[in-house]
Amino acid sequence: MIGNRGENVQSIKRSLSAQYQVILFNKVEPELSWFNPVAAILYQNGGPAEEVMQQLRQLKQLKPQVPVLLCRSGEEAFRGRECPPGFNASLALPGDLLRLHELLPELEKRRLGLARHLQLAWQAMARSFSPPAAAPAPPPLPVAGAQPAAQGLDARLLGAFELRAGGRILPPIRSEVNRAMLAYLICNGPERILRHKIIEGFWPDSAEEAARNCLNVAISSVRRYWKEHGTGQLEISCRDNAYFLQAPGPVNTDVKTFLRLWERARSLERAGRMDEALNAYRRACELYSGDFLESVTRNIEWVESTRSKLKEAYLSALDRMAVLLMERALYQEAEDTCRKILDIDDCIEGAHRQLMLVYCHTQQRSKALRQYAWCCQALKEKLGAGPFPETEALHRRIVSGRL
Predict the structure, then answer these.
(1) 381: number of Cβ within 10 Å
(2) Are 33 and 58 in contact (CB under 8 A)?
(3) Contact, 355 vs 308, CB < 8 A?
(4) N or C, where is the chain less crowded by C-beta within 10 Å?
């Protein structure tokens, strides 16, 4: 969902989260390419129509095949019920929330296509009679713990910030802004980043001249840090109002490896290789040692945005991992995984339901009932709402002894 500053956004996310993983973006960003969504929702809350159409054009450049739904609230919803060109549907919220639920399964089926549905049906039938054929192996990943190349740079950005150059740990960077700036350049690697894009991510509310001065100071400080402590010929170059990193060796980050493991796990799941998928999810979650740049406490928009998206990916990996563990009756590990989810957000009902099931399968019915009570309390205190029908139905089954 793009445009998360409306009063209806959290209710939309909450309504959809039982069936879908909903990821929020302030605006159209390159990180959208990490995901392969059923649909993208552009949320307009009284903003100008041209701004929404600009977002649509940017979105189509990043994900040309993804269906796009326009959701509007307030007066915009009633002035613009017709569907603008380029959108698959235009919805007025909150009245059209039910229609949104009906549209998403249709779009998912359309994405799969009839041929794919037939293929899935055939594969399911074939698995009933014979072992599944081996699926093509996803591309190999770098071996965990491998030593970096002599001129390479390794950056740990999840949890505690750490840099290694040529295998040597570099001294910490005292300034949070400089730390975030170097992380920004490392994450983008050799990709050219326009000056105004960096300013937008770091100093969006500053006057242009002041923001340029802040950028120049930060770049100069990072260059000086690297000259004093780095090894090899890593350079921050500027050309045509754009900055980019030049490094003679590989630049590796735990973020890149985490996302690759997450994508690998999802690919293995789609191929029906569930045990391998579970192990890939395990490795990804082990790598997530903390929030992105957790030592940066200043309000830097790029850091906050990236941190939020990576946390959503981590929660998604934990959720799928918990489901696969439950299917294999690995109840203790499933319980630990669900608790990690609830430590981050105790309003995620799926994790509460999984824990209720864990306790039922391990003959701890009273714990399952207490978990339901905790779920209801968290939802009431933080969201002012009750549990989903699925959670209430599970609770009734436990109370009646049918589970």
Answers:
(1) 10
(2) no
(3) no
(4) C
Banded pLDDT at 125 (limits 50, 70, 90): very low
Give the separation between CA 317 and CA 302, rounded to whole angstroms: 23
Helices 208-229/195-202 angle, 10° precision: 100
**Is residue 385's pLDDT more than 50?**
yes
Model pLDDT, residue 249: 78
Which helix (H) or strand (E) is 309 found in, with range?
A: helix 301-327
Among 222, 243, 212, residue whose Cα is nearest residue 177: 222
Domain with CATH 1.25.40.10 in the chain: 329-403
Greater confidence, 286 or 152? 286
Per-residue pLDDT averaged across 312-329, rounded?
A: 94
Band the pLDDT of 97: cuts 50, 70, 90.
confident
- Tell me the per-residue pLDDT of 225-256, one tens digit each, with 9 for 90 and over: 888 886 656 788 888 888 988 887 788 999 99
Superfamily of 329-403 according to CATH = Tetratricopeptide repeat domain (1.25.40.10)
**E strand map for 63-157:** 68-72, 89-92, 153-156
Residue 268, classed as helix, strand or coil, is helix
Where are the alpha helices (H) located in 7-48, listed in sequence order?
Answer: 9-16
Res 76 pLDDT > 60: no
The pLDDT-based confidence of 214 (bands split at 50, 70, 90) is very high
Other beta carbons less than 10 A from residue 34's beta carbon: 15
How far is Cα 125 from Cα 107, in angstroms, rounded to an integer?
25
- Which residues of 48-148 form beta strands (DSSP E)? 68-72, 89-92
Cα angle 359, 360, 365 (rounded to 5 degrees) comes to 80
Residue 311 tokens, joined: 């946390």
CATH 3.40.50.2300 boundaries in the chain: 9-107
Give the CATH class of 9-107. Answer: alpha beta
Cβ proximity of 317 and 265 under 8 Å: yes
Q: For residue 110, how many other CB atoms are within 10 A of its CB?
A: 12
Q: How far apart are CA 207 and CA 399, in angstroms?
A: 61
* Residue 34 per-residue DSSP state: G
DSSP code at position 226? H
